[in-house]
């Protein structure tokens, strides 16, 4: 479309008189939220010592969080007396540390032997309020801690960039160390009705984690905030919309500030890319822009436009990870329900259903070491790529393994139904049959979630690193909601007339195996879509010290 008369694009380049110095272009809080960092934007502290403090904090916080969450489904069914399908959905939130005061009556109830009284309305209200408060707190803690830990290493330095990449693996390792204690000792307490003691241990762990975090504040390396990235992205779309009738300028004519630094203080310049060309209109200088060069709702730099493009490119990949999170969610909900109706006697020892997630944790711990110290060196030697496989390849492998875990869960449930004993709750099939599905989920986590942390944090521009890390947590959260909707939809379709549905309160008359196979099919379809998105994805390209440099070779970032 030809440009209209009043808004003919100007041909001034980055060296034209209409370009201003980077310090003059920095926007205020009202129009972009940019902040003035120090000259270099960074402190000189950091390294592995403060990183280890943060890793210990992650382990303790995870112990507290999962210590109250791992048996949540059983708490909902035994204490709040919810149906299995409802419990599988509300297991998606986190249990309050205060709910025991109102709900666990008489003391010690909630085991398989002692039943609890009907919960009071006040107790249920406090329970659900606390669920969302705890989830809100942990939802802010985990992605922020992942980014803050990575900030302890300066990725501009080659050796520290390798340490930064290694940090994400250790971060997930620390998370599972915390889970190991919560899924063994705390699960035993809670499964036998000692909910109060389990909650108090979780509370103590949270307090220690907080004090440990405060103790290291002088050692941390702080990166100055770059303002609100959401506002900057919105500015690009608003500016492009205002110039919808303007023809986008060529790359050489788009607006950028002079000097090595971008207008977003502390953020490196990003090279121009040819996709999403309509967004380049935001960096196209028109006659009207000459009167107000500081109006970022009309004129944005190339770097700001490319920052928005990076978000647009990452979103399709991120959306493909949500189905995997549906797979992951089953481990804390339906896997537990499945194990609760299996033969959990191993010799003379009673094995609580939630304790089976220990095999997931051990799988994560083992696979993390194998990936870092065996797979990466082997692939690097064979293929010549020093980082082993790319993040996109890693995530794709994780999706495949996750799909296989659902197949394994379906096979286990099919076998369990074949050995149901009439008149009894539990099947004669040993709970140890669940080991393969837990091990496969653990292996998939190492590839998918660690790959997500590395990918979204590494591909996000300097100004939106926290946003990149938050995408991983958001994927898990949305996966929980999708799982909830899927359970409700399945029950709405299958539970008709005399048919109890696939996931009834009595699992022995249901077909939960079909639900697991359905999730496996969805994961397979999602993998096909993921392949297309991964092949389409183009990596971010940054400009350092006046030289244009790819963050990664394009051929290496592709999944195939």
UniProtKB/TrEMBL annotation:
Instruction: State the residue spans of region: Disordered.
Output: 1-20, 25-44
Q: Which UniProt keywords apply?
A: Membrane, Transmembrane, Transmembrane helix
Q: Where is the composition biased (Basic and acidic residues)?
A: 25-34
**Which cellular components does GO assign to this protein?**
membrane
Its predominant location is membrane
The subcellular location is: Membrane
**Domain of life of the native organism:** Eukaryota
Q: How does it sit in the membrane?
A: Multi-pass membrane protein
Question: Mind telling me which InterPro entries this protein's record contains?
Answer: MFS_trans_sf (IPR036259), POT_fam (IPR000109)
- Transmembrane residue ranges: 51-76, 167-189, 195-215, 315-336, 356-380, 392-411, 431-450, 471-495, 515-533
What is the species listed in this Swiss-Prot or TrEMBL entry? Answer: Vigna radiata var. radiata (Mung bean)
Lineage start: Eukaryota, Viridiplantae, Streptophyta, Embryophyta, Tracheophyta
In alphabetical order, the GO MF annotations are: transmembrane transporter activity
The name on file for this protein is Protein NRT1/ PTR FAMILY 7.1-like isoform X2
Assigned protein family: Belongs to the major facilitator superfamily. Proton-dependent oligopeptide transporter (POT/PTR) (TC 2.A.17) family.
């Amino acid at each position: 479309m030809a440009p209209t008369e009043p808004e003919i694009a100007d041909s001034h380049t980055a060296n034209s008189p209409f370009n201003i110095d980077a310090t003059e272009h920095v926007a205020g809080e009202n129009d972009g939220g940019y902040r003035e960092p120090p000259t270099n934007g960074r402190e000189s502290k950091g390294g592995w010592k403060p990183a280890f403090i943060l890793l210990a904090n992650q382990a303790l916080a995870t112990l507290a969080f999962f210590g109250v969450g791992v048996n949540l489904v059983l708490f909902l069914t035994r204490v709040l007396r919810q149906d299995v399908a409802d419990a599988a959905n509300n297991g998606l939130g986190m249990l309050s540390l205060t709910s025991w005061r109102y709900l666990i009556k008489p003391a010690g109830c909630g085991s398989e032997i002692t039943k609890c009284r009907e919960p009071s309305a006040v107790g249920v209200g406090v329970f659900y309020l606390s669920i969302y408060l705890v989830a809100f707190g942990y939802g802010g803690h985990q992605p922020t801690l992942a980014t803050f830990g990575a900030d302890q290493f300066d990725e501009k330095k080659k050796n520290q960039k390798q340490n930064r990449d290694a940090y994400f693996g250790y971060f997930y390792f620390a998370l599972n160390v915390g889970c190991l204690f919560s899924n063994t000792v705390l699960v035993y307490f809670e499964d036998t009705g000692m909910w109060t003691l389990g909650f108090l241990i979780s509370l103590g762990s949270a307090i220690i984690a907080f004090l440990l975090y405060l103790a290291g504040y002088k050692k941390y390396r702080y990166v100055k905030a770059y303002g609100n990235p959401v506002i900057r992205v919105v500015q690009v779309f608003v500016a492009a919309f205002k110039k919808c009738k303007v023809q986008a300028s060529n790359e050489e004519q788009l607006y950028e500030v002079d000097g090595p630094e971008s207008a977003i203080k502390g953020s490196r310049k990003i090279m121009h890319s040819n996709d999403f060309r309509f967004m380049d209109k935001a960096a196209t200088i028109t006659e009207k822009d000459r009167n107000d060069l500081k109006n970022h709702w009309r004129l944005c730099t190339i770097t700001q436009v490319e920052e928005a493009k990076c978000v647009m490119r990452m979103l399709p990949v991120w959306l493909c990870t949500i189905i995997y999170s549906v797979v992951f969610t089953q481990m804390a909900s339906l896997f537990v329900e499945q194990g609760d109706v299996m033969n959990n006697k191993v010799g003379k020892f009673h094995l609580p259903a939630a304790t089976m997630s220990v095999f997931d944790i051990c799988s994560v711990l083992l696979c993390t070491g194998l990936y870092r110290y065996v797979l990466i060196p082997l692939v690097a030697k064979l293929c010549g790529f020093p980082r082993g496989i790319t993040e996109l390849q890693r995530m794709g492998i994780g999706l495949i393994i996750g799909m296989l875990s659902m197949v394994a869960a379906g096979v286990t449930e099919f076998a369990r139904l074949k050995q149901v004993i009439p008149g009894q709750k539990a099947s004669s099939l040993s709970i140890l049959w669940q080991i393969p599905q837990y091990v496969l989920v653990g292996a998939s986590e190492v590839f998918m979630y660690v790959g997500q942390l590395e990918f979204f944090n590494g591909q996000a521009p300097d100004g939106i690193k926290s946003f990149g890390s938050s995408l991983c947590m958001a994927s898990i959260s949305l996966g929980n909601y999708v799982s909830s909707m899927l359970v409700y939809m399945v029950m709405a379709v299958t539970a008709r007339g005399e048919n109890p549905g696939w996931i009834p309160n009595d699992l022995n008359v249901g077909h939960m195996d079909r639900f697991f196979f359905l999730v496996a099919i969805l994961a397979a379809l999602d993998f096909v879509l993921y392949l297309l998105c991964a092949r389409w994805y183009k990596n971010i390209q940054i400009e350092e010290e006046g030289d244009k440099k790819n963050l990664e070779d394009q051929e290496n970032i592709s999944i195939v």
